[in-house]
Amino acid sequence: MTGPVDERAFELVTLASGARAVKHRGHGEVMHPGVGPWREANHLYVDQSGLAVRLTEPGPPLVLLDAGLGAATNAVAALTCARALGPAQQRELHVWSLETTLAPVRLALEDAAGFPFLQPFAAAVQQLLRDDVVHLPRATWRLVVGDMAEAWRRADLPAAHVVFFDPFSPAANPQLWTPAALRLLRARCDDGAEGCALYTYSASTPTRVSFLLGGFFVGAGVSVGTRRETTVAATRPGLLRAPLGERWMARWERSSARAPHGQPLTDEVERALRDHPQFHAGTGQPTFNRLAT
Ligand SMILES: C[S@@+](CC[C@H](N)C(=O)[O-])C[C@H]1O[C@@H](n2cnc3c(N)ncnc32)[C@H](O)[C@@H]1O
Prior knowledge:
Blueprint: E1 10-14, E2 20-24, H1 37-47, H2 51-56, E3 62-67, H3 73-85, E4 93-99, H4 103-110, H5 122-131, E5 133-136, E6 139-145, H6 148-152, E7 162-165, H7 179-186, E8 197-200, H8 205-213, E9 217-221, E10 230-234, H9 246-254, H10 267-274
Residues 1-2, 31, 37, 41, 68, 70-74, 98-101, 104, 147-149, 166-168, 173, 176 line the site of S-adenosylmethionine (SAM).
């Protein structure tokens, strides 16, 4: 799905906030452009997923799929959260990072002043890049280099409990946001009692339609920077704090962007969306709950 990656395609930039970030020279997108990498990684991904609390509850290893290692900010934020728990951590954290190119993380590691939060894990990152795996106290971090959509096809990827879905935007990485691609990702999610919740920065209508058609239940996520909302997608509606409901459906019916990413709007697509169990009784959940947006 992706061609060879030019290692010179990335550069470091300073954001208006003063934070350093990695930019793709080709399409110009910046990783974590708003409030800066560390704040966004913690607010949108780590804190919102309730990772700290979940790691203090005994259980099998918690599997986190880090979709888009990039400069490793999200992955290191998760590992930092686990490390800060000390002996309170009751279950292991298994991070699986997926990425086509290691250029962004190499750039960020070299800029210790710009990415100080990576430094406590510098040796771990080096080992990860060398061996594709690093074992830490109560955590394991693995790297799968290549097209993440191909990785989603792999049955040997463990069932994920949490996904940090952070590719470039649908404009830059169109193939990763289609219902077909998201169905592959959905198949890698835990379908047991724990289930899986996915966090991503995009809150656009086509993004939410893609996740719904990809087999997820979908809700609004926290606001970050200038984004009023982000998106949470889950295997069960009970994992969503603010599931999309009647108001969102009414907006979708009026929207001029009702198609999912990468697929035309057909009668079948419209029907599939209207028939989605999220919007219907008989799923054991209320049709539209009062928190719904
Ligand atoms: C927004 S950046 C990720 C930022 C990262 N999560 C962090 O915390 O620094 C998106 C990343 O997705 C990677 N990517 C894009 N398409 C991909 C694909 N098909 N498979 C794997 N990685 C991909 C890019 O190389 C880029 O590093």
